Amino acid sequence: METCIIQSPLGYTKINGDHHGISSVNVLNSEEKVTEIIPLELEDCARQLKEYFEGKRNQFNLKLNPQGTDFQKKVWKLLEQIPHGKTLSYLELSKQLGDVKAIRAVANANGKNPLWIIVPCHRVIGSDGSLTGYAGGLHRKKWLLEHESPYKQQSLF
């Protein structure tokens, strides 16, 4: 398993993966040493994340290899289908899975998503439109949703 640390506008980001694909991307809550030479298996992921943060990329095209239960993987696949700049509620995700009673299990699987940004769990919000739980912190979720919004706030002055 290869690992690298890159800098992003939201903090240091750790990427793990190998020839089977990217297994995790996590934002860190501490300062880390940025990797000087990114392993070949992780170069494309690091480049695509940089493009995303620069506003030049709306979709990721990477070989993914997250580890999780079958149910978690099913939820993560649904997350990948949420378009850039759009949001979906936990209830809507549960309905897509065919079981509205699975809302807590969906929320739990969403919270265990190991592929920060790449599998866009930040696009899932509460049914009332609120920014509910986010492993990376609600300030990051807010930043990501604003970054992806097609409606940019203009300065009044």
**Outline type:** globular
pLDDT average, as an integer?
93
Strand portion? 15-25%
Q: How do the strands line up in the largest sheet?
A: 1-2-3
Integer-rounded radius of gyration:
16 Å
Number of strands: 5
> First CA to last CA: what distance?
50 Å
Describe the overall structure.
The chain has 157 residues and is an alpha+beta fold. It contains five helices and five strands. It has a three-stranded antiparallel sheet, with helices on one face. Helix 3 packs across helix 4. The longest helix has 14 residues. The model has no long low-confidence stretch (mean pLDDT 93).
Core attributes:
3-stranded antiparallel sheet; single chain; alpha+beta; 5 helices; two-stranded parallel sheet; 157 residues
